[in-house]
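Support case: oxalyl-coenzyme A complex. Customer-provided input:
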Amino acid sequence: MLDGIVVLDFSHYLPGPFASWRLAQLGADVIKIEPPSGDRLRPFAGGRLFAAYNAGKKSVALNLKTEEGRDQARRLAARADVLIESFRPGVMARLGLGYDDVRRDNERIIYCSISGFGQQSGRSLLGSHDLNYMALSGLLAQLADERGRPVHPKITLADFIGGMAAAERILAALFARERTGKGAHLDVSLVDGLAAMMAGHFAIEHGGGPKTGLSELSGEVVCYQLYETKDGRYMSLAALEPHFWQRFCEAVGHPEWTEAQWAPARPGEAVYDGLVALFREKTLDEWSAFAEAVDVCLAPVLETGEAKALFADGRLRHLVRLQPGGAWTAAHGPDGQWGGGEPPKVNEHAHLVKGEE
Ligand SMILES: CC(C)(COP(=O)(O)OP(=O)(O)OC[C@H]1O[C@@H](n2cnc3c(N)ncnc32)[C@H](O)[C@@H]1OP(=O)(O)O)[C@@H](O)C(=O)NCCC(=O)NCCSC(=O)C(=O)O
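Agent response - structure generated as follows:
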């Protein structure tokens, strides 16, 4: 779909590389501009995290603190369709690679600046990371334990939501460019991505409702709840529609619970206590088999390796990649590597600039 679209990606860590990875999956040609020391993500987890989101891209190492490096970057930018950067606001302009600099040679460029708090806000110039965005957007407070303490998630949600938002804006700008012939400067803020997710919570609270969003979805009712199994694992029951709940109650031999779909999920409440006891009668595997046999919106809470196995053997839909020509194929190799092939080595594609000299 994006065959022939060239994305020049100066970004580090996760949000920008995730955005360009999504575009690469749609067929774009992504060239990473890395400092000679490489993307800051490269050293973590033996390079595996970097590999997951950078496979299929090209790497050119440029020292942008030298005139030669900046010159080469400018020449690449003059030929690119999309440029992504995620430095602190002002960094690219100081390097002579800001939007106005690049636009002079390439007025069709779609220039995407990813930042924590936008290019111009009270916090714009402060450094920040994913945990800060989750904290400030109100999202982290929604991941609290029973005592109200925020739970530190083991995945960086703002980075990925922000990366998706960046890819979404880039696609919209490419579409607009088809109609107008004009490029654009996109100001994507990672905290904004989370604010979009929080819009429903903000609206409910603004209208005098709870600060925890919709109570039907926030763990307060028996039909939409996590239950512990005999082997200490958890099942997610999400029987929101009355027909699923009724079918569940009948399938587990408790048709008398049908009327109690919205009963509170509190110890001491008869139906809740009954469900807790019921789920403890079977193991995760036994409940998983039940969930595949009976259509009631029930699914096991899986660990990483278990989930990966489900994707890998096709029982969940594969993460897919669009190949030139339009065929969809699995985006991960047999060794469990995700993203469609090997990641580039630092400066593996140096010829992309040398060829021009
Ligand atoms: C992540 C940061 C806090 C890191 O801050 P800093 O370490 O102070 O970096 P800055 O971006 O301010 O500046 C980068 C500096 O590197 C220089 N620079 C950059 N590329 C090059 C190359 N190729 N060659 C030479 N020098 C280079 C650039 O000129 C700047 O120098 P000087 O101008 O001389 O300083 C910030 O980049 C930032 O706020 N970015 C926007 C939001 C973001 O990406 N957040 C992290 C998401 S990942 C995440 O949250 C997570 O995984 O956790």
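The longest strand covers residues 29-34.

Case will auto-close in a few days if no follow-up is received.
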